[in-house]
Amino acid sequence: MTDADSPSPDVAKAVSPAVMVVAWLWVAVPFLYGLYQLAEKSSKLFE
Amino acid sequence: MGFLDRSRIIAGAGWNRWLIPPAALAIHFSIGQAYAWSVFKIPLEDSLDISGTASALPFQIGILVLGLSAAFGGTLVERKGPRWAMFVSLVAFSTGFLVAALGVATRNYWLVVLGYGGIGGVGLGIGYIAPVSTLMKWFPDRPGMATGTAIMGFGGGALIASPWSTEMLGAFGSDTSGIAKTFLVHGLAYAAFMSLGVVLVRVPPEGWRPAGWTPSDDAAKPLVTTANVSAKNAVRTPQFWLLWIVLCMNVTAGIGILEKAAPMIQDFFQDTDSPVSASAATGFVALLSLANMAGRFVWSSVSDLVGRKNIYRLYLGAGALLYLTIMLEKDSSTALFVASTMVILSFYGGGFATVPAYLKDLFGTYQVGAIHGRLLTAWSVAGVAGPLIVDSIADSAHESGDTGPALYTFSFTLMMGLLVIGFIANELVRPVNPKFHEPEPVQAESASPADTPDPLPAERR
User: Fold this and answer.
1) How far apart are the CA of B9 and the nearest CA of chain A, in angstroms?
2) What pTM, to 2 d.p., does this model score?
3) Which residue of A has its CA nearest to B456?
4) CB-count exposure of residue B55 (10 Å: 0-12, 13-18, 19+)
5) Would B301 be classed as within a structural domain?
């Protein structure tokens, strides 16, 4: 393995559970906002 | 640039593969904004004094460039790696908004087209394929679920962008100044949001595989290979073109409903005791979006259990039967119409999300992203054909004095025919002839011998 092929030292660290939580919240929060807005709009079909 | 090199993103010990889906979603939720372009149509028409056709052009160019950049940039994406691809997507997509903002601020319509459609379209195409092969390499045991998650994000992006953009236009105003500010904020916000994907994405080390899974587990399944086919060779196989037909037919059948959903449901029930109002029609559109998005995740995950060929049998066969049901029942039941169209749209989404895993089964993971990019030209064709069929036939029927379900009888019959063609194409799919397989050293890149050390501890999988 050459130097260029070696993973950088930062990627060799173990992933903290906080990173996992933040990563999923990062995408989940806007998605839930979108779902909420969708549910509000969909309800008009049944009014 | 070193930071973007594939060699810099090889996951080390302790990396968790469940960080890859949010990385992919950060990209797909963003570029999925394209499906919410309609929010800007009326404000642009009023402020720039342009027609409805002209206001649709930035979106149309964006989808066209998406297909072209996915088709022609696929091999580069495979070579450079997902971080490079996500970064290119981030830069192009957000720059597209910034250029469009400048275009609106200076009342230069063509700058809007160039920015959102031309530059932003590159971000759409490269971003769409960026995480696909990486996800399949991290989740070889569940490739359908993995790609379904990302591609669901593309469907979900509009759910987020549509209300968000509407609120922003409400706050900034719908004149040129307000639209320019809205585009500016979109460009900056999406750049920040997508950066998560760029920072988080990793590729598995050579030979990595999930605990308790070996390639031979899947090799026993029909149509699943452990060999690899290059993108150049894949387009020479009948399997590629059969899948191209399958995708094109499935997308055409779904997009015809999706594009005309609101007027369609109002037309269908206009002569009944319970006509559908314009407001209720927007609720119908929202339900179809939900079905489209949910289908991407649910059906592609199911395909991991029942097999890709079987799930396309369902999409195409049951889809044709649902069209038949709508034609036979006509305007007898709103609930039946809504339920049937929702299932058809879930098959439409499922078709998009399952096809990368189908490609992986047939051609291996070696250049599956590039092959996927080339296959997306089927989407470009379907994007034109579907609306054209439904719109032109409905217009013609309207001029002939038809009303209600009769406006759509012929186009739905055509859609059934297209689905049957897709069904037959799917039936003809067989394993790829070994003469197209790459030699052994390439196979070792993605399917390693069993004695390769596994760098990730089991509990992190």
Assistant:
1) 7
2) 0.83
3) A14
4) buried
5) yes
